[in-house]
Design brief:
Layout: E1 13-16, H1 20-32, E2 36-39, E3 44-47, H2 52-59, E4 66-69, H3 72-85, E5 94-97, H4 100-107, H5 122-126, E6 138-144, H6 150-157, E7 161-171, H7 177-186, E8 191-194, H8 197-206, E9 219-221, H9 224-233, E10 238-240, H10 246-254
Parallel strand pairs: 1-2, 1-8, 4-5, 4-6, 6-7, 8-9, 9-10
Antiparallel strand pairs: 3-7
């Protein structure tokens, strides 16, 4: 494996596993740093059809004190939907999102969203000053189907009235063995990225049978929780980034030795 050291990524081949729409900026950053992104999305994002419950929450957006988008996908899909019904957004709402990437997406709609300065995850959101006194507040959480309940449960326990709107579904992508073999033979990775447990499980199911050495490669993950899951799956060189942002992921790759 090439060693980045202080000379950028120096030709390091990085397996980028984020959904296709979210991987572009990270891949560009890897190229600028001298690496070679090997793009192989391990999640597909499918927008859920609008239903009466979703429509009711969006139509009554003005009843919420805080709206939280827990991912870039939630921010983009959620605001596309809100934009259909609210040409002018209610002025009183505090908008929170998980990190700078999703914050930028909300900025595209003219929303000055706030996000954690450290920890692009539910734990980071829960440390924000806006969520320390939530007794009696109405909070709408925009999210994907299923997923973690830590945010909703913690805020509800603190006295907030929580509504959730599920906007998309995470699917495992379908690759033929020929497609995978061709890519892995041509661009065998030096380091692997996994920024969610879903991605890690799909890596295990899709890539491991064809790349026996994958679990001995450096694996960059975005949290202690993902790292623990990776250990259970048998990965033995795990690097934990500060959070799931592009900057934190790139910093973790740069720190490989």
């Amino acid at each position: 494996m090439s060693k980045p050291g202080n000379k950028g990524l120096d030709g390091l081949k990085v397996l980028v596993t984020r959904p296709a729409r979210q991987s572009r900026q990270l891949s560009d950053a890897i190229r600028v740093a001298g690496g070679h992104p090997v793009e192989m999305p391990m999640l597909e994002i499918r927008v859920l059809p609008e239903n009466p419950s979703t429509r009711d929450k969006v139509l009554n957006l003005d009843r919420y004190d805080i709206v939280i988008a827990v991912s870039a996908n939630a921010a983009k899909i959620g605001l596309d939907l809100v934009n259909c019904y609210w040409p002018q957004l209610p002025a009183h709402i505090i908008w929170l999102t998980v990190g700078p990437a999703s914050g930028k997406l909300l900025a595209d709609y003219g929303i000055d969203a706030r996000f954690p300065q450290k920890g692009a995850n539910s734990e980071g959101l829960l440390r924000m000053p806006e969520l320390q006194q939530v007794q009696g507040l109405r909070i709408l959480i925009m999210k994907g189907m299923g997923g973690r309940q830590l945010l909703a449960q913690t805020l509800a326990a603190a006295g907030a009235r929580i509504d959730e709107v599920e906007l998309y579904h995470r699917d495992k992508p379908a690759y033929s063995n020929n497609e995978l073999k061709a890519l892995l033979n041509r661009k065998r990775p030096d380091v692997v990225l996994a920024t969610s447990v879903n991605i890690l499980d799909n890596l295990e199911a899709i890539i491991s049978p064809l790349l026996a050495s994958m679990k001995s490669l450096p694996l960059v993950v975005a949290s202690d929780r993902i790292a623990e899951h990776a250990r259970l799956l048998g990965f033995n060189k795990i690097i934990i980034a500060d959070d799931a942002s592009n900057q934190a992921i790139l910093k973790a790759i740069n720190n490989l030795s």
